[in-house]
Specification:
With about 170 residues, this protein is an alpha+beta fold. It contains eight helices and six strands, in the order E-E-H-E-H-H-E-H-H-E-H-H-E-H. Helix content is about 40%, strand content about 20%. The chain is globular, with a radius of gyration of 20 Å. The termini are far apart.
Length: about 170
């Protein structure tokens, strides 16, 4: 038997300490949350029911819709949300597009929900997106791609805080 590499208060750490570390990582995966946004073009093209249906179909597994809310305008929140693009030449147009009408913003939780939702949404360009993704089915262009989904746990938590606070 190999002793663990360290001890706490002169007591040896149990041999299953690595397993406990893995279990903790998996437990945090169970608590994963992500954010989605149905963009103004969903309202303009009258496709809200179809896009929401496709997202809700994901919940038949282990995913759960935690929050959903209609937002309109909110220019200050869009500046925060897209802050990483503020120096790019498309930033002003992006803010104009996102504030031109209402959006639906929701939070989903569940194991691997970020990856599951991102796979359902597809890549940014609807032409390059897989056939059965939301962006391929409903998107018109890179700029009018119907839906946003957080791309990482860090982004999801930041975006959720912007739109819903610490709730």
């Amino acid at each position: 038997m190999v002793d663990p590499p360290f001890s706490r208060n002169n007591q040896k750490i149990p041999n299953n300490w690595l397993m406990d570390t893995e279990r903790a990582k998996n437990m945090s995966k169970l608590q994963e949350r992500t954010l989605f946004i149905l963009k103004p073009e969903c309202f303009e093209d009258d496709i809200i029911p179809e896009v929401l249906r496709d997202i809700i179909n994901l919940f038949q597994g282990e995913l759960e819709l935690k929050k959903v809310q209609l937002f309109n305008g909110c220019e200050d929140k869009w500046f925060q949300h897209y802050a990483e693009h503020s120096e790019k030449n498309f930033f002003d147009d992006l803010i104009k597009r996102m504030t031109r009408g209402p959006v639906i913003i929701g939070v989903i939780s569940g194991k691997s929900c970020i990856d599951i939702l991102r796979n359902e949404v597809g890549v940014t360009d609807p032409i390059k997106a897989d056939e059965f993704t939301l962006r391929h089915k409903y998107g018109k262009s890179v700029q009018m791609n119907v839906v946003h989904a957080s791309d990482s746990l860090k982004s999801a938590e930041r975006e959720i805080k912007i739109w819903f606070g610490d709730r």
